[in-house]
Specification:
The protein has five helices and four strands. By secondary structure, it is an alpha+beta fold. The protein has a single domain, classed as Four Helix Bundle (Hemerythrin (Met), subunit A) (Up-down Bundle), CATH 1.20.120.1090. It has a four-stranded antiparallel sheet. β3 and β4 form a beta hairpin. The two termini are 19 Å apart. The relative contact order is 0.18.
Length: 145
């Protein structure tokens, strides 16, 4: 069973701290604060890995989340299920997007994040509601990541 609740004030403070770190990361790679440029930053990081991976995930994940919310609406929520707990976005259509997972996955795969991230944002806005883990899912993936 999945529990979705508002994020706490402490998580809101942490989110702001990580967004500031994300902005610095983007600037260090010469990337603007847009979704596609955030993807370009991820693609550049894969070549030099000069920033610790967890900083990339947290900094760019919270930044990506707020960019998506600014474009498509929704809110930050805290999601807890049998797999753990994490901050996520909840779209006006109740769709859940795990923004930090989106960044983490792109850091670790061979995708071209600059092209993929705008599509992820559009799917978040357009798709019907979906649970984090479907019955066929082995727990390794989230609904939108």
């Amino acid at each position: 069973m999945q529990s979705v609740t508002p994020i706490s004030d402490a998580v809101k403070r942490d989110k702001e701290m990580w967004k500031a770190a994300g902005s610095k990361i983007l600037a260090s790679y010469g990337c603007a604060e847009t979704i596609s440029q955030l993807g370009r930053c991820i693609d550049s990081w894969k070549k030099d890995r000069r920033v610790p991976e967890q900083e990339m995930i947290d900094g760019l994940g919270f930044l990506l989340g707020d960019m998506i919310l600014a474009q498509h609406g929704g809110k930050w929520v805290w999601v807890e299920d049998r797999f753990g707990q994490t901050p996520a976005l909840q779209a006006p259509n109740d769709r859940i997007l795990y923004a930090l997972d989106v960044v983490s996955k792109r850091l670790r795969d061979n995708s071209v994040a600059e092209k993929e991230l705008p599509s992820v944002a559009d799917v978040y806005a357009a798709s019907p509601p979906m649970n984090r883990h479907g019955p066929e899912d082995d727990g390794a993936a989230s609904s939108l990541s």
